[in-house]
Amino acid sequence: MDIALDLGSSRTRLFIDKKGKVLDEASVAAYNVMSNKIIAVGDEAYAMLGKTPDSISAEYPLASGVIAQSALVEDMVHILMKHICTSKIIMPRVVASIPGDVTEVEKRAVVNAISAFGVRRVYLIENTKVAAMGAGLNIMGPHGTMVANLGAGTSSAAILSLGGIAESKSIKVGGNKMDDEIVKYIRHKYSLVIGHPMAERCKIAIGTLSDEPDDEKTFRVKGRDAIGGLPRFVDVKPGEIRDVIIETATEIVTAIKDVIENAPPELVGDIFEDGITLTGGLAKLDGFAKLIADNTGIRVTVAKTPEDSVILGCGEAIQYIAEVEKNAKNDINPLMAAY
Ligand SMILES: Nc1ncnc2c1ncn2[C@@H]1O[C@H](COP(=O)(O)OP(=O)(O)OP(=O)(O)O)[C@@H](O)[C@H]1O
Ligand SMILES: [Mg+2]
């Protein structure tokens, strides 16, 4: 039995071959700061964020899609994999996605975190490749396909052809940075201290990149008064959130444009015909697809359930393991040599 894993900076998703996605939980771990013993992981630990006593710490152990705190990630992966691995799944082979430009050390950290569970072998694949596969695009032909995977900690764009990456760029910017900007803005403008989960809820509820935000809508942001310390709330409008997050969105748009500008002209011709597909949770941000289309002059579509594209593509990539293991001389196998 084989497993696919999307170890994202905000969510961890697991897929079992022939079954589909079986787990989707927050990439959060909570532990006792004295003993380092894990108390909870996933959604259970997410519910503890910002609400822990001094003796407990709850945090996202992955930063920018790569491993920031290896021991915590290892424990989190181990526990989540245990949730899904019944006695029938012994020493599974694992296909895991990684951002495009990670270093060898970072790759090794991902492999180590997974290996600690007791797996037969780990296969790595770049997240833009699997994002495209999971979005239902054909990346195997001699034809350019462009995808941008917009996540919490990273955003990557790539032009794919013949099962490989012809041009790509990955930046450590995504939804998390927008949440940080919202936290800062609410503090400065309203003297209200809020946590990241509240900022994220606000972004999801009314965040927009549209030129004509619907300011009839409001979102109630609750926090603590920065001076008096007492609980307070303010009602914010989409237009002000747009002004707060537009800079981060522009950084992502620039990365996408860089990929187009550096790609071979024949492939760009294909992209012009077929358009760009957006994947990742942040692709659901209102107005993002239009902003990218307006800035590139290329049609943009959002994948169906964009947050699942990467895990579905990893699941699909399981079928290529056999070829890699046979050492088949097939240059268009999208799976990367594993350790
Ligand atoms: N409806 C929505 N509107 C706006 N943003 C959203 C929406 N749904 C999810 N997001 C944002 O998408 C991001 C999560 O996307 P995703 O699940 O693809 O990230 P990830 O895989 O965990 O991170 P990464 O790939 O960067 O490591 C978060 O910043 C989240 O707030
Ligand atoms: Mg991701």
Molecular structure report:
Helices cover 37% and strands 27% of the residues. The strands form 5 sheets. A 5-stranded mixed β-sheet has the order 3-2-1-9-10, sandwiched between helices. A 5-stranded mixed β-sheet has the order 13-12-11-17-18, with helices on both faces. Strands 5-4-6 form a 3-stranded antiparallel β-sheet. It has 3 domains: 144 residues, Nucleotidyltransferase, domain 5, CATH 3.30.420.40; 98 residues, ATPase, nucleotide binding domain (Nucleotidyltransferase, domain 5, 2-Layer Sandwich); 66 residues, Actin, Chain A, domain 4 (Alpha-Beta Complex), CATH 3.90.640.10. It is of the alpha+beta class. The model has no long low-confidence stretch (mean pLDDT 92). Strand 1 and strand 2 form a beta hairpin. The chain binds adenosine-5'-triphosphate (ATP) and magnesium ion (MG). The site of magnesium ion has 5 residues, from loops.
Helix content: 25-40%
How many DSSP E strands? Answer: 18
User: H/E element string?
Assistant: EEEEEHEEEHEHEHEEEHEHEEHHEHEHH
| Chain-averaged pLDDT | 92
CATH superfamily of the largest domain: ATPase, nucleotide binding domain
State the end-to-end distance.
19 Å
